[in-house]
Amino acid sequence: MSNTVVVGTQWGDEGKGKIVDLLTAGADLVVRFQGGNNAGHTLVVGGRQYIFHIIPSGILYKNKKCIIGNGVVVDPEVLLKEMEDLKKAEIDVDPGRVSLSDRAHLIMPYHRALDLAREAKKGKNKIGTTGRGIGPCYEDKIKRTGIRAIDLTEPDILEEKISSNLKEKNFYLHEFLGAETLEMQPILDKYLDMGEKLSPFITDVSVELDRALKADKKILFEGAQGTQLDVDHGTYPFVTSSNPVAGAACAGAGIGPNQLHHVLGIVKAYTTRVGAGLFVTELEEETGDFIQEKGKEFGATTGRKRRCGWLDLVAVRDAVRLNGLSSIGITKLDVLTGLKTLKICVGYELEGQVIYQRPASLRQFSKCVPVYKEMPGWQEDITQVRDADRLPVRAMEYLEAISEITGVPISIISVGPGREETIIIKDIL
Length: 429
Ligand code: GDP
Ligand code: IMO
Ligand code: MG
What we know:
Layout: E1 4-8, H1 16-24, E2 29-32, E3 41-45, E4 48-52, E5 65-68, E6 73-74, H2 76-88, E7 98-101, E8 105-106, H3 109-122, H4 134-143, H5 155-176, H6 184-198, E9 202-203, H7 205-214, E10 219-222, H8 248-253, E11 262-268, E12 271-273, H9 286-294, E13 307-309, E14 311-312, H10 313-323, E15 327-331, E16 341-350, E17 353-355, H11 362-366, E18 369-376, H12 393-406, E19 410-414, E20 422-424
Parallel strand pairs: 1-10, 1-11, 2-5, 2-10, 5-7, 6-8, 7-9, 11-15, 14-16, 15-19
Antiparallel strand pairs: 3-4, 12-13, 16-17, 16-18, 19-20
Helix pairs in contact: 3-4, 3-5, 5-6
The structure holds guanosine-5'-diphosphate (GDP), 6-O-phosphoryl inosine monophosphate (IMO) and magnesium ion (MG).
């Protein structure tokens, strides 16, 4: 039995959704453990595209349980809309298929308002958040004033909590941020209504997972965002407000570390980033445009153009250490086809010295210049390849360099967005 955590090793959008969908075939349950609807996970199955923001990417398989853990911040409106859309596509989303942790914190309208007003006030110094209220919701959780899924089932407590929160938020919104205030009653009515719809799904997820583990079920944990966006280990403050690293699967789902057996790090064959923040290997000229266009690098949540650059193995090596990666899944290798020369960043030059880890200081990081290893590219179409032995020699050399420099074996290679456009090297489940 092998329970696996799938995490992003870069700045998100590595293709976690596609890989989680693929691996779900061999799992019994799929669990989200952090983040919220800042995530956008795209799956292409049978030629049809699905984008999930909050529902785990295992939902397309019948008889697999999808779980939203306590570490996730949930916008109930987005969750219900996603459920509705799935029903329209004739995909089953009854409580037998989806569970929502009673301890998951809820994104409220004032969280979204605060996120947007704060970013507007910051102007050019903004983080470039998704504007979904993620940060403000996690702040309330840590501040111990958050509203949890269970509160939807206790109307008097919900009313009291919304009321006391709104007093504080409205003051802050109006006095400090110069934004519109919000009214209590419409929020309460809406959340009570949504609570009625969601209450059959609300359960103690930790207990449910414990039961599954005792019955020898296989669990797949689906990370959102990526290691470089981790609030502790990422490029702070240009990060998200949760811990996308593998260790967070335990706290965010309510299981012990001894239940995790494999950590799969998803590495896009190049680097992308949405939002602001330093990006050492960013390409602003022709090659960047080539990758952006060929890779269709637009944010799945906000539609923003993703910034593109060469593969940064300093970042990936940090992710190897921070997540304890067991193996790597390489995605979007097909996008690099056609480039004459490829570059891999193997170190940073900082004040005349080569360093191999990202410094904590943003000032120091801003002075880092990439040290590249150059490799010849390949021209052959690889989207039909299903066996690693049939990849062009130069593609194999590129993959071998990644594995050698990171010290981690590659278990999966993705050569297209479709479920079938995949080369499996090692069956990790
Ligand atoms: P996630 O947030 O990590 O799940 O990644 P996103 O879904 O936001 O972004 C990855 C994008 O690349 C999606 O549009 C996928 O359909 C697409 N994709 C995934 N793997 C591959 C691949 O190997 N090749 C190509 N061309 N596209 C891929
Ligand atoms: P998936 O799961 C890429 C980025 C935002 C912004 C920063 C903070 O699809 O990989 P937030 O709204 O979280 O406060 O924004 O984090 N960000 C992502 N970038 N993929 C994601 O998720 C992201 N989720 C948040 O662009 O820079
Ligand atoms: Mg995404």
